[in-house]
Amino acid sequence: MTDESTGRIALAADSAESQVSDIGSRKIDHLDIVLAQDERARFAATGLDRVIFEHVALPELALDEIDLSVPFLGRTLRAPLLISSMTGGPERSARINDHLAEAAEALNIALAVGSQRVALEGRGGRGLDLTLRQRAPSVPILSNIGGAQFVLGYGEDEAMRAVEMIGADALIIHLNPLQEAVQTGGDTDWRGVLSAIERLCANLTVPVVVKEVGAGISGPVARRLVEAGVSVIDVAGAGGTSWAQVEAARAPDPRQKAIAELFAGWGIGTARAVADARLACPETPIIASGGIRNGIEVAQAIRCGADLAGQAAATLKAAETSTEAVIAHFEDVIRTLRIVCFCTGSASIEALKTATLVDPPNFLAGK
C-alpha cells in the first residue's frame, strides 16, 4: 500500500470519526433544548382539544375493573401506551434508556428507542444494546433508524443489526424531511425512500413501523406506506416538540435560524393526522404521538382512531431523574385515562373508540 493510499484511508477514518462525534454532539444539544422548553408551550395545535367527550352521569361501571389492555406486536399491554422514541447515541442516553426500559417493564407498556445511527456507525451507543432487553424482557421494544439513511447506503443488514442490537420486536423507520431541510448539513435527497421501505418490509423478519417526528403523516401517505408493506403507522403529528424550532436554536447563523423558525408551526395536527390515517388505513394499527401530555389527551387520540398513544417530551424530565419518576408519570396517565373511560361509560379501550362526543369536529364526522 502506498503512502498516498494510507493517507487517504486515515483521512476517511478521521472524517467518519468526526461525523460520529458531530452526530453525538447534536443529539446532546437536542436533549438540552427539549428539556429547556416550557412543557406548556405549543408551536402548533394538536387539535385534540376539539375532541370533547359527553359526560355520562350514570356509568354503571366499576372504575377499577375497566379494561385498559390492548394487543400490540403479539403481546398484551396493560394500557395503550408507548414510550416514544426519545434519544439515541450519546453516553448520557444510557441512563435515560435504562430508566425507560425498567419503567416500561414495570408498567407493561411498549418502548421505542431513539435513532440508532450513532450506535450503528461508531461510538456513543451506550444504553442501546441487549441490556435494554434484559431490563424489559416482556414488553414490545422498537428499534429505530432514519428513513433518509436508506438512500445513503443503509440496507437490510443495518436494519437487522439495529433490531438485533437491542432484541427488538419491530423496526421504526422515522421520517423527518422538515428537520433535515432546516438542519445544518441535513440529509435532503429523499428520492427512493419509499422504495427502500418497501424492500425492507419484504425482507425483514420483524414488522416495520413508520413514524414522523412531529409534522404528521397524511392519510394518502399512510395509505402508500401500508401498500408498501408497513405494519404500523405512528402519525407523530404537530403540536408537540417542533424539530424546526429545535434546529433554529442550534442554527449557526441568523439567516438559517430565521428560516427554521418560520416552520415552527408547520405540520398536520395530531388529531387530524390520526383521523385521516384511520380513514385511509382502517385495518392498520395506528399510534398517536405528538404533543400528548396526559391521560385525557391519550383518550382523545384513541377516540380519533388511534390504537396506542405515544409520549416522548412529556416523559423526558422524569427519564432524566429515575425509573421511579417515569413510573409515577405513567401511573398518573393511566389513572387519568381510566377516569375518562369511567365518565364516558366505556368499559374498555375498544368501547372508548366509539364514546359519544359533543359537537364532533369535522375530521371526525360520522365517527
From TrEMBL:
E.C. numbers: 5.3.3.2
Residue numbers binding substrate: R26, K27, S115, Q116, R117, Q179
Group of enzyme by EC: isomerase
Gene Ontology terms, MF aspect: FMN binding; isopentenyl-diphosphate delta-isomerase activity; magnesium ion binding; NADPH binding; oxidoreductase activity
Subcellular location: Cytoplasm
TM region(s), chain numbering: none
Cofactor: Mg(2+); FMN; NADPH
Catalytic reaction annotation: isopentenyl diphosphate = dimethylallyl diphosphate
Annotated residues for binding of FMN: S84, S85, M86, T87, S115, N144, K211, T241, G291, I292, R293, A312, A313
Signal sequence region: none
Entry GO CC: cytoplasm
Binding residue positions for Mg(2+): E180
One Pfam family, short name: FMN_dh
Main location per the UniProt record: cytoplasm
A biological-process GO annotation: isoprenoid biosynthetic process
Entry-linked CDD domains: IDI-2_FMN
Keyword field: Cytoplasm, Flavoprotein, FMN, Isomerase, Isoprene biosynthesis, Magnesium, Metal-binding, NADP
Record domain FMN-dependent dehydrogenase: where: 195-356
Function: Involved in the biosynthesis of isoprenoids. Catalyzes the 1,3-allylic rearrangement of the homoallylic substrate isopentenyl (IPP) to its allylic isomer, dimethylallyl diphosphate (DMAPP).
Subunit structure comment from the entry: Homooctamer. Dimer of tetramers.
Family recorded in the similarity comment: Belongs to the IPP isomerase type 2 family.
Name used for this protein in its record: Isopentenyl-diphosphate delta-isomerase
Gene: fni
